[in-house]
Amino acid sequence: MSVTSVRRAGNRVFIAGVALLILWVLLPIWLLFVNALSAPAEVTGFPKRFIPSFDLASLSFFFGFSGVVDALWNSVKVAALTMILSIGVGAPAGYALSRFDFPGKETFRFLVVMTRAFPLPLLALPLAVMFIRTGLDDTITGLALVHTTLALPFAVLITFSLFSGIPLELEEAAWTLGCTRLQAFTKVILPLAAPGIAASAVFAFVISWNEVFAAAVLTIENRTLTAFLLQSIDVSPLPLKFAGGAALVLPALFFIFAVRKYLFAMWGIANR
Amino acid sequence: MKSLTKWRLTAAAVSLSMVAGPALAEPLFWSTQAKPVEESQKMRDEVMAGFPGGVDYQPSDEGPWLTRMQAELQAGSGRIAVLGGLHGDLSSLGPDLVDLSGIDAAAVGPAMMELGSLGTGEQKYIPWMQATYLMVANRKALEFLPEGADINALTYDQLIDWARATAEATGGPKFGFPAGPQGLKHRFFQGFLLPAYTKSTVTEFRSDAAVTAWETFRELWQYTNPAATNYSFMQEQLVTEEVWIAFDHVARIADAFNQRPDDFVAFPAPAGPEGRAFMPVVAGIAVPRTAPDMEQSMALVQYMLQPETQIATLRATNFFPVIATDLPDDMPASVQAAGPAIAAMTGAPDALPALLPMGLGDKGGQFNQVYTDTFERIILAGQDIRTVLDSQAEVLRALMIEANAPCWAPDAASEGPCPVN
């Protein structure tokens, strides 16, 4: 067998692998959107048409469903606030962990991860009692605080490894050239770390966006989309399941699409 | 780009303020029922619309439903005005529910009202709506019905013959059973299969008759679509024709009739040697002691019992009224199909109602698990029936003693916890 034919075979395997991976990701999304955009009667039919019939009955029912727009907006607010809080608290913590030695550092790292050891249904009851007493109940801030607790460990750990990957020498060089600590951070470290921080922000956003239990217990008037819909979707007729699925997936897709530049940049760092 | 984003935000804010009406004065109806989006939409738009000032109807999964209620009880103040749930959901909240004897519920039958007292002297909840389980068949399956069998008076043996004939004619098992994680399989064993063979749900759990019941079901399982362990709402598989004959809750088969009214028939559950066992399902409404405005809560409970509200509830949820009332002619196809089948089942000469578990408090989930585990061990894992029943009977006995729950129909009344022979 000649070298070229081996290479050609290798190429074919590579292309097949890539195609398989693409299908793996795109097929469910395609099915979701085809079914969401089909007339209810077509949903149970098979085979599917490649291009849906763009019947908006299911989707328009969905968005006509009173409170959906409201809940969507609440979800965005809670997720955005979670994102800000968890990066605002998590990134400095990650920086401190990677740059300074302080007593109890290992314990601190362990405790951060420990917060994920307790299942939310267990925590929700005392949290809800406390929230009702303090007036945080049924507020965007209250829910965002809970979601921040969930997202924080990831934010701390991701930013920790991120800052650890940026050589201290860069910072030191900046100091020798007259930068203060803060200037060195904002002018040298931050631009390098920004893509990673964006990625961990996306992660926080998605964690908050997907969370159901706390949202269902802690909000009444200000329900998030998941609390409002997710519990109903699994017991709804098939066409509505697809419409609801599409409605839940779409904003997350948009968001990730919007920050994809930073995500790719981060992978660039990882490859170097 | 920036101005576009700004414009979008403004648009969102405007639509937000338009959607969010005055909400605070509305009583909060916190419910585990009518969860599917279409049903909760109808509850809000049609059922609750007649209540002065409107109602905030919020359906929720049992977990968050209970946790939220417990949190309000512990905090000592709350938003929930009225609770809606199945008998089992409400029974775990017993001590924290307000006595509703003041409500005029004379139209509701005394047996059902008795359920709502949860074994105390007070009226802990008022029956709200009721349902049961039925069999459904695709009309294409009718030609394989065994000779001489009356679809309204089938026996389990005839059902097996029918399922076998259908499987042989079509080349694949066509019986469907909701054995998935969300499926209501435990109710079939508690309220249909076991009582039909043993006239008991608890006491005769490991009797010889119970062994026969499980043998029968194992036979039926051969003609059951093996994907049944993923089924939770049989209407989906009926519509896709993955199964032709199925058993499920009336609310979970409704969509099949509403989508294709001419293609399906509903009929009573089959009978065993002890009778045609079936399980009536009762949902109730209750008022927690933390309700913000007692008077308003009571008014809402009373409103739910009015004949017009009851009929609107039937349209919305496929749960039937708890009061005797004439149904209008323009009911949905699902109601028109289920009505006569339910009447045939409850009015059958061999009818044997097997009630929902009573007095188990928060042990209801564990009680169901006993039946689910028994099913999984015997049918899915293929273990010996006698061995499984003996070991599960121990679990069941311990549970009944722990809950100190006396027997309920069709088991004979007991002094102290219901015995497991």
From TrEMBL, chain A:
Gene3D superfamilies: MetI-like. GO terms for cellular component: plasma membrane. Keywords: Cell membrane, Membrane, Transmembrane, Transmembrane helix, Transport. SUPFAM superfamilies: MetI-like. It is found in: Cell membrane. Residues 72-259 form the ABC transmembrane type-1 domain. GO terms for biological process: transmembrane transport. The chain crosses the membrane at residues 12-33, 54-73, 79-98, 110-132, 144-168, 188-209, 242-263. It holds the Pfam family BPD_transp_1. It comes from the Bacteria. It is a multi-pass membrane protein. Belongs to the binding-protein-dependent transport system permease family. This is Carbohydrate ABC transporter permease.
UniProtKB/TrEMBL annotation, chain B:
Residues 1-25 form the signal peptide. Gene3D superfamilies: Periplasmic binding protein-like II (3.40.190.10). The keyword Signal applies. The keyword Signal applies. Pfam families: SBP_bac_1. InterPro entries: SBP. Keywords: Signal. This is Carbohydrate ABC transporter substrate-binding protein. The lineage of its organism: Bacteria, Pseudomonadati, Pseudomonadota, Alphaproteobacteria, Rhodobacterales.
